[in-house]
Amino acid sequence: MVLPGVLVLDELNLLLRLLAGTAAGVAVGWERTLKHKSAGIRTFGLVGLGTAAAAAIFAGNGHIDAASRVVQGVLTGVGFLGAGVIIRRDGDPNPHGLTTAAAIWVTAALGCAAGLGQWWIVLAATVISLLLLYIDHTVEEFIQRRHEGDRGQVPAGRETSPKDDPGDPGDPADS
Prior knowledge:
Blueprint: H1 11-34, H2 41-59, H3 64-83, E1 87-88, E2 95-96, H4 98-115, H5 119-134, H6 137-148
Helix pairs in contact: 1-2, 1-4, 1-5, 2-3, 2-4, 3-4, 4-5
Protein name: Protein MgtC
Family: Belongs to the MgtC/SapB family.
InterPro entries: MgtC/SapB/SrpB/YhiD_fam, MgtC_SapB_SrpB_YhiD_N
């Protein structure tokens, strides 16, 4: 259904939406690249661009019902891409790549928001995502130690610090 009075996106508006989705993805991917994670700038930039394009295809023509189905399908489908970065290492019960997988999913949502022209959502959610990603595992360990410090317990799965093992770039769930 095409809504009456809704204009087709002009080329500049469409380009801005695609660039915003790509920029949000690149920002998140930059952080993942700095932490030497398996998915980085190119992967996240492409997720942001692709999801912005998918959402903009129908949003620009006033097909709100079609755009909502596209967003639903994108956010469901991108879960499979995220699942591809989650791995288990031999002898380690902890999954690796959960944060990267979550960041891929969030980037898809950012791209969809950009494709739909939801500028404040794109800006606010990108900033919040980056803040969450920059919270290092040392902050999590500090909070855990404060919580369990009075009882003298060692947090589960934290018998040694990830920094003690030079082969481990960080929190197992953050790979």
